[in-house]
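Researcher: Here's the sequence for the chain we discussed earlier.
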Amino acid sequence: MRNEQGARQAMIHKKEMPGRIASDAKDRENIRHKLEMCINPFSSEDHPEGIVNSVTGRIAPDPVNVDSSVALGKEQMKQFEAGWPESFHEPLSNKVVTMSINKKRIKLGSADCFDANLIYSRVMGLMSSRDIDLKELFSHELAPVPASMFEDNGDMRITKSKSSLKQKLRLEQSS
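Model: Thanks. This is the structure I predict for it:
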């Protein structure tokens, strides 16, 4: 079909193209597969006792009290309001303990260090038990900061050798 200027117009929407339909079908299948691996939140017979992560199935340890966070928050609010005006500028503490305490880390001074070898071995274990594309996985950064530029504790690595090499190259180039 042509419009008044003589240009061709498509008769179907871009979301109705065969490539888009195939891509959407693949996305739906991936979502369905992920949901099948999760715990069904509507079936209480499948749930273990206590707090559980519905995606990983990991049971929360005893200190986790996220299920009573509303009650803890209301109690903290009452204490905060009761201390007014003297305690208005004092910091608020967080009494809710989440499942983040399960993180595997080592405390070195005031910094948290994560074991990169442990992360790598877990990825390899997951890859053998699930259908994971290794190229796609390693296309993403597996550390919070680039390991080549920062130490495990977050301090920036000193690049003295590169800096001295740069000075030598500058001398050779200028002569």
